[in-house]
Each structure stands twice: as C-alpha cells, then as structure tokens.
Design goal:
18 strands, alpha/beta, Carbamate kinase, 14 helices, globular, 419 residues, binds adenosine-5'-diphosphate, VC0802-like, binds aspartic acid, single chain, binds magnesium ion
C-alpha cells in the first residue's frame, strides 16, 4: 500500500522530534515522506529578506540546525557542509526572496534522510522542484511525480520537501506559507497513495481554533467540503488547497498528532454520514467589506455582472456576498487593487469601504428544510454585532461577518453553545 505522510515544522523542530518522525514513518510504512522546515526557520528566512537583519538571521539558523545535527547524527560533516552551502545561498544578495524561503525545507530533509540512513534504513532524498511546478497564479500545474511512481522500490523510504517548487521562470520558489500540506496532497495523489496523512502538533481538526478558544475538541470524521471550508476560512491546521486534489482523486486525508501517534486524529473523506448539526467554526481576518448601492439596480438586470467584472479585471476574489434590491455588499481579503476597484465602482454606484473585519464560518451539515439551525447560531452570537450573513449557498456552511475585535468572543461563544 502506497502512503504519503507529511510532517510540519514542529514535528521536525528538534532532534528528538525528528527521531519520533522516523519511528512513525517506519512503523506506518510511509512510501513518501514530505517535510516542512524546522519550526521557526521559515519565519527567520522571511525576515532575512531585509538585508539589515540577514546576518543575525543566518546566525540564528546556524545555531538551530547545528544543535539539531549535533544531537541527531553521528556522522555530522555532510550535514554541516550542506548547512553552510544553504546559508551561503541565504546570505547572498542575489538570491531571490522566494528561493531564500525555500532553503529550510532543503536542509531539514537532508538532515532527516541522513538520520534514517544512520538508523540502517534505506532512504532516498528527492528534490521536489524536479517534479513540482507552479505558474504565476501560484497554482501547482504539474506534478511529474508519476515518473517516480515507476521507480519506487519497496523497502525504501523516499523523503522530499513540501512547500518548494520550480516557479514559472524556472527558478526555485514556493507555494506560499503553510504550503507543505498542499505539496503532500499533490504528491500523494500523483504516486497513487491510498491515503495522505498530515502529521502535526495537535490531535486532528478541532471544533474551533485552540489558539483563541478554550474547550475545543477533536472531530473524528469530516467531509472534504467541510475541511475545505474550514481551511479556507482560517483553520491553520490545513492549507486551504490541500483537500482539492485528494477530493478529486478520492484519496482520504488523515490528520494525526506526531506528539501522540495513538490519538485518533481526523479522517477527511468523501463520506457524508455525519448527523445534521454544526461541527466546527473557523475565522479569517483582514477582511474588507465593500458596500455598493445604486437606485439603478432597482428592477434592473445586468448590474451585478458589471460589478463582478470589475473584480475579475483586477483578479480579486470575492468571499462573501449579500444583495438587496438596491444594494450589494461583498467582502475581499486581497486589497492590492482596492483603490482602482473602488474608483471603477464609483462610476456606477455609491460605494463604502470598511476594513478590519473577520469572517466567522460555521461548518456542518445544514439542511435547509431543518428548522432551528440558523437560530442556534444567532442565539450564540446574540450579543455580537453581525455585519453580514451568508446562509443557503452551501448546505455545508454558514458565514457571519463581524468586527475583528469581536472575533475571540464570537468564536468562544459559538464553541460553548454549539458543541
Ligand atoms: P504544521 O507546522 O504541522 O503545519 P500548523 O501550525 O500549520 O502546523 O497547524 C497546526 C496548528 O493549527 C495547531 O497547532 C493549532 O494551533 C492550529 N489550528 C487552528 N485552527 C485549528 C483547528 N480548527 N483545529 C486544530 N488546529 C487548529
Ligand atoms: N515551512 C513553510 C512555512 O512555514 C511551509 C509549511 O510549513 O507548510 O510556511
Ligand atoms: Mg501548516
């Protein structure tokens, strides 16, 4: 059985955690093991874009990786040499930033593969940019792992980097923060895995974000659609694009805890057996609302098309939308071209803009002919000003727009009331 296991930054964040990962992949029989960079090192590489602090970031990276190599490996020199080679790339002014950010994964996978070999396992390190490609829309367009599929040797542990890829101009780049999950999904599907496992520092998808909410608990099973909505609306445990390739290929995704491998975790699959109810809540910050109103909308057709065309022109996705006869409100999180969008919209309507909002998304099984579900959500947030509501677009989710300052109170109250 072919299996792809991905381990995040904390899971490979120290020598002892790397030993634990090696135990897991060998007992699970992982075919392809996809790793993130050691925790904190991608943040450091991001900061190193600033030439003024680059030297101190390089010192930090050298100290972190040297400690890990020192504790983990007997034959340290190949990893030390690799580290120095990578730190030279990080230090160079001519290294483009997206390539600099990719260096953590390269070093982490190198050290981990050395560890597997020292423990007597047959291990092979694969260079992900040889088979992961993205175009300028930051979408992976090709995953040529199929070639590797044909050379898989039973008994060999293949190790590769999440997050990193060859970008449109042929140089080294990455899929954006948190992108290792997405890498693992694409690779896992490409090599025909029966399951893609995402190993992290928590026992699966929780009912709410444990960084903000007390008393959350893990959810054992959920559908691809629910997981996709939660990830898109802020559940950091999963990169939002992760479930797309798995859903298309019918490959289950399992979320597991590296620190507690015996815990059940969460199984994400196409099965839709869950009882009608709410399952989890997530929140996405930095949301801007654009309120557009025009008397010309009254009894008219074609107005919405004109509005949407403006967003399309500036490649700005819309998240939430509500309409009345003379007004439409919508939300965006990408505000790069906001000024131009507003300017064009003002030619056809009056426009108001509000920043600093959050979308709170409640997912579960919401059948429209079932009375009382929306009422439960409203009851839970009765003391919070609600600025927009989206209900009825998908029987998987319901979204509320609130001021960001009310986010934690909203999440806590929903968690207390719904689960
Ligand atoms: P990794 O480095 O393994 O990719 P991440 O930090 O990206 O790990 O994701 C795991 C973290 O996601 C958890 O430690 C937790 O704080 C956070 N998180 C946010 N929302 C949720 C949720 N609904 N369920 C579980 N974890 C969540
Ligand atoms: N190392 C990258 C990051 O910190 C990718 C990942 O962990 O998924 O964003
Ligand atoms: Mg992550």
């Amino acid at each position: 059985m072919i299996k792809t296991l991905k381990f995040g930054g904390t899971s490979v964040g120290s020598a002892s955690n790397m030993r634990q990962v090696a135990n897991i992949i060998t007992s699970e029989g992982s075919t392809l093991t996809v790793l993130s960079a050691m925790s904190g090192t991608t943040d450091s590489l991001v900061r190193a874009s600033d030439g003024a602090v680059r030297d101190s970031e390089v010192d930090f990276l050298r100290a972190k990786y040297t400690e890990c190599i020192g504790e983990l490996l007997t034959n340290k020199q190949p990893s030390i040499d690799k580290m120095e080679e990578i730190l030279t790339v990080v230090s160079s002014d001519s290294t483009i930033q997206s390539a600099r950010e990719a260096q953590g994964e390269l070093l982490t996978t190198f050290i981990f593969t050395e560890h597997l070999k020292e423990r007597g396992f047959k291990a092979e390190l694969l260079y992900a940019p040889d088979f992961m490609f993205t175009d300028d829309q930051e979408v992976v367009v090709q995953s040529k792992l199929n070639t590797i599929k044909n050379v898989i040797e039973p008994g060999t542990y293949y190790v590769t980097q999440g997050f990193i890829a060859t970008v449109a101009d042929g140089t080294l780049g990455n899929l954006g923060r948190g992108g290792s999950d997405y890498s693992a999904a694409l690779m896992g599907v490409a090599i025909g895995s029966s399951e893609v496992q995402i190993w992290t520092d928590i026992d699966g998808m929780h009912t709410g974000d444990p960084r903000f909410v007390r008393g959350t608990r893990p959810i054992r099973r959920m559908s691809f659609e629910e997981a996709a909505e939660l990830a898109y609306f802020g559940a950091k445990i999963l990169h939002p694009a992760t479930v797309i390739p798995c859903k298309e290929a019918g490959v289950d995704v399992r979320l597991k805890n590296t620190m507690d491998p015996a815990a059940d975790g969460t199984l994400i699959s196409s099965s839709d057996e869950s009882a009608m109810n709410f399952h989890a809540v997530a929140a996405k910050d930095n949301i801007t609302v654009i309120r557009i109103s025009s008397a010309r909308m009254l009894m008219a057709y074609g107005f919405l098309r004109k509005v949407f065309e403006v967003f399309e022109k500036y490649k700005t996705p819309i998240d939430m939308i509500t309409t009345s006869e003379v007004a439409v409100s919508l939300t965006v999180d990408k505000i790069e071209h906001l000024d131009k969008i507003i300017q064009e919209l003002k030619e056809m309507a009056s426009v108001e803009v509000e920043h600093c909002n959050s979308i709170v998304c409640v997912v579960g099984r919401i059948d429209y002919d079932h009375a009382g579900l929306a009422a439960r959500v409203f009851k839970a947030v009765e003391n919070i000003p609600i600025k927009m509501i989206s209900y009825g677009a998908s029987h998987r989710s319901m979204s509320l727009l609130i001021n960001s300052e009310d986010k934690i109170a909203t999440l806590q109250s929903l968690n207390n009331f719904l689960f």
